[in-house]
Amino acid sequence: MKVLLIGSGGREHTLAWKLAQSELVNEVIAAPGNIGISGEPKCKSVNVSSEDIPGLLNLATSEKIDLTVVGPEAPLCLGLADAFASRGLKVFGPSSKAAMLEGSKVFSKTLMQKYSIPTANFEVFDNFDKARALLSSCLFPTVIKADGLAAGKGVFVCKDRTEAYEALDSIMNRRMFGIAGDRVIIEECLEGEEASFIAFSDGNSVVPLAGSQDHKAVYDDDKGPNTGGMGAYSPAPVITEALHEKIMNDIMIPTVRALESEGAPFVGFLYAGLMIRNDEVKVLEYNVRLGDPEAQPLLFRMKSDPVPLMLAAIERRLGGMTIEWMDEDSVCVVMASKGYPGAYEKGLEITGIRRAEEIEDVKVFIAGAQKKNGMLVTSGGRVLGVTARSKGIGSAISKAYQAVTLIKWDGVHFRNDIGKKALGR
Ligand code: AMP
Ligand code: GLY
Predict the structure, then answer these.
(1) What is the sign, positive or negative, of the torsion defined by CA atoms of 166, 337, 5, 215?
(2) 61, exposed or middle or buried, with CB in 10 Å at 0-12, 13-18, 19+?
(3) pTM
């Protein structure tokens, strides 16, 4: 089979690496891909943007692609899966209607309310004055969210009224996220420990991956602004066996059934971002794709070939399938540019990747780097993810950081506490 993989980040490098190991796959073509993907056996990158749907359709047709796998949310929200399916092409990723689960927080919150899926209490506003009036009487902290896609920056956890007014003003008046801020959600602030729960869905049946946990804040101890994710590990001991059952029964299956009832069956990776406190679980958000960096530790310890699962999802026959995992923990430490998630310099030479990968069961997945004059240089905020696997979370953490210390560039930043919460359990 020939697979087309859409996207260019660390998640896509990991997907390409994993897909290429499938006995069913002869070639993976990534659009636009990255330098890490291009270096993998059976893989190449072609310069077509992940949001150029006509260009991707042409590529899929001219390359006689058998299966398309979509990494990021934006092309899904733009209707990539609908366009591919209408041409009879097999695509693993939801339709634009089902992708509204991530593309519109008003859509997802209203769906959860309608189908009694546990989530924070909320109200929706399309008018600044009315939203501001609520803020003058609500309890703090409170959470304000732009409705639409905002590259992970549309959520403000506000500790007091001043911060809340500021957030509301940026979203609704100063239009920081454009039309994504036409509507806002103001919601109850939840406490607890966050975890990511991701599953294959065929629109009716759900096959769960192992649990994982991301680290969103840029600095140690969850301090500083939120990023796309500074590191992740799997499994996540906060998701006990009993909680796993509960998440499947109260959240994952009801969500897929709800979308089916709404005429938008969900085919793809369904991701629930959860807040867990004792034995209570609530949905913070949905994503319609694998998490980045959760994909790195998840796929690094997945024994099963994902391709048969993807094909089964597309053909609506996932029911009864299962996934096998290595009996080891995996940790990914993201190494980022100085200044990220704010402005940062690019073009800095990266050294040490080869030495890092000489350590057994260590793999470096590239997110924002490119070749320039024969050197590997930084080209993004999140530059790469050092991913390690070992028996026991403590040993996986040590191994990941042993590799991290070998990789260098000017101003490199990473968190020193990835996996610490799991160690505490
Ligand atoms: P989201 O994009 O909705 O996942 O929000 C990004 C981050 O904001 C989450 O990972 C949480 O850390 C935080 N967050 C979102 N909603 C809430 C909430 N209701 N209570 C507390 N924190 C939240
Ligand atoms: N790591 C969180 C996300 O992919 O949205």
Answers:
(1) negative
(2) exposed
(3) 0.97
Which amino acid is present at 375? M
Give residues with Cβ within 8 angstroms of 81, minimum separation 6: 70, 91, 93, 94, 95, 96, 99, 267, 268
Listed residue (4, 26, 17) closest to 300, CA to CA: 17
SS3 of residue 408 by DSSP: strand
C-alpha–C-alpha distance, residues 96 and 99, integer Å: 5
- Ligand nearest 155 Cα, by number? 1
Question: Does residue 390 line the site of ligand 2, with CB under 6 A?
Answer: no
Counting ligand 1 atoms within 8 A of each CB, the residue from 284, 286, 421 with the most, and so the one to mutate, is 284
Q: What averages of pLDDT result for each successive group of 10 residues across the chain (425 residues)?
A: 98 98 98 98 98 98 98 98 98 98 98 98 97 94 96 90 96 96 97 97 98 97 93 97 98 98 98 96 98 98 98 97 98 98 97 98 98 96 98 98 98 97 89
| Amino acid identity for residue 337 in this structure | S
C-alpha separations of 67 from 2, 31, 110, 123, 235 in Å: 7, 13, 33, 40, 28
Contacts of 90 (CB under 8 A, 6+ apart): 66, 67, 68, 84, 311, 314
- Give dist(CA 259, CA 254) in Å, integer: 9
Q: Which atom belonging to ligand 2 lies closest to the Cα atom of 291? A: 4
Probe residue for ligand 1, chosen from 144, 147, 285 as the CB with the greatest number of ligand atoms within 8 Å: 285
Distance of CA 276 to the CA centre of its chain: 19
Q: Rounded distance, CA 78 to CA 69, Å?
A: 15
Q: What percent of the chain has pLDDT over 70?
A: 100
Domains of the chain: 2-93 (3.40.50.20), 127-182 (3.30.1490.20), 193-314 (3.30.470.20), 329-423 (3.90.600.10)
CB 313 within 8 A of CB 321: no
Instruction: Tell me the CA–centroid distance for residue 295 and ligand 2, in Å.
Output: 9
CA distance 94 to 85: 10
